[in-house]
Amino acid sequence: MTQEPTQLIVAALTAGHLPEAERLCREQLLGQPHDENSLLLLAMALQFQQRHTEAKAVYLQLTELFPDSSTHWCNYATASATAGLLTEAEDAYLTAIRLDPRNIMPKIHLGLMLVQRQDFFGARDVLLDAFELDRDLPLARIHAARACCLCQDFQGAEDLLRRWRNWLPLNDGPLQLELAKLLLLVCSAADAGEALENLLGYAPSYLEARLQLAYIYERVNRLGEAESMAQSVVDSGAAGHTEAIENEADHVFATLALRKGDAAAARVLLERRGPRQANDFAHYFELGRVYDKLRETDLAMQSLQTAHALQVEELRIASPDHFRPGALAMPAEIQRVTEDDCARWPQLSAPDTRDSPVFIVGFPRSGTTLLEQMLDAHPGLQSMDENPFFNRLADKLRRHDPRIMLNLDLLQQRDCDELRKQYLIMVSEKINRRWSAQLVDKNPLNMMWMPMIHRLFPEAKFILALRHPCDVMLSCYMQNFRSSIVGAACASLERLAAAYVQSMETWLEDVRIFQPRVLVSRYEELVGDFPRQTRRIAQFLELDDDAPMRKFDQHARNKGFIGTPSYSQVIEPVNRKGLNRWTRYRREFEPVLPIIEPMLRHWGYSADLSD
Question: Which phi and psi (to 5°) does residue 381 adopt?
Answer without folding.
Answer: -130, 155
